[in-house]
Write a structure and sequence with these properties.
Length: 250
């Protein structure tokens, strides 16, 4: 059977598959931590800076939590190939601030701060949904359950923070600019997510020796999800609503 539950149980039971799965998650979180840390250093805004710092600390903590899950099983992170690297695909599609930009020392413009927040709004939506799925699948697992519940709770904070900051900037006259950027980033994110997911299925198929039919069906599922998102559900990523948790990051 090809349910999400059966696939994730299969991944969890195999050390190599589990190691790859957790390494992908840890890499994304650690990368998010680094990006937020750099953005905080380049910010002129004294009110926003502590929130960005907190955001970065949370993401770095998530990276450590995932690595600890591996260590509990006597495993260590493996290198994630570029095709399965979500952050790299996002950058390639022009979402957010590039690595090269973040490595400079030039303070961020207001447009660049908005780019960071819109990038976060879109990717935190994805992160919150992915980790919610992990809570559903592994919530009862004594090792993985507490870890993914803690991360899921943080992701609600991050999403709330993005809504709050973007609504504030919209009220300051950036509404149309933000609306257009949200739309462009959401449409690019779903492409980046499809690319990453296809690479993930390929890698898992190799590790777990899936037959061509199983691999093909899972890839078909990735394409189907993309087309549903492209036609309808991408809109969930661009809505701005009063935050579920006001002042979530301070
Ligand atoms: Fe995270
Ligand atoms: Fe997050």
């Amino acid at each position: 059977m090809l349910s999400a539950s059966s696939i994730f149980q299969e991944i969890k039971s195999d050390p190599d598959a589990f190691r790859f799965f957790v390494s992908v998650a840890a890499k994304g979180e650690t990368q998010g931590g680094w990006e937020n840390g750099r953005i905080a250093e380049l910010l002129d805004d004294e009110v926003l800076r502590p929130k960005v710092l907190r955001h970065g600390e949370d993401e770095s903590k998530h990276g450590r939590i995932f690595r600890r899950l591996l260590e509990q099983r006597g495993l260590r992170c493996v290198e994630v190939d570029p095709e399965a690297d979500y952050c790299m695909h996002l950058e390639r599609w022009g979402i957010g601030l590039s690595h090269r930009r973040l490595e400079t020392s030039k303070p961020l413009s207001e447009e660049e701060v908005i780019s960071y927040l819109v990038h976060s709004r879109v990717t935190e939506q994805r992160a919150a949904e992915e980790v919610d799925l992990m809570v559903k699948l592994f919530g009862d697992d004594p090792d993985i359950g507490p870890a993914v519940r803690m991360i899921a709770d943080d992701e609600i904070n991050h999403l709330s923070y993005c809504h709050e900051e973007l609504l504030r900037l919209s009220a300051e006259g950036w509404e149309e600019y933000i609306r257009r950027m949200l739309e462009a980033y959401a449409k690019a994110e779903i492409k980046a997510y499809r690319k990453t997911s296809l690479a993930f299925v390929d890698r898992m198929a190799d590790i777990l020796s899936w037959n061509p039919l199983k691999k093909g069906l899972l890839k078909l599922g990735v394409h189907a999800k993309y087309f549903i998102e492209r036609l309808v559900t991408w809109r969930r990523m661009v809505r701005l609503a009063p935050p579920v948790r006001p002042g979530a990051l301070g």
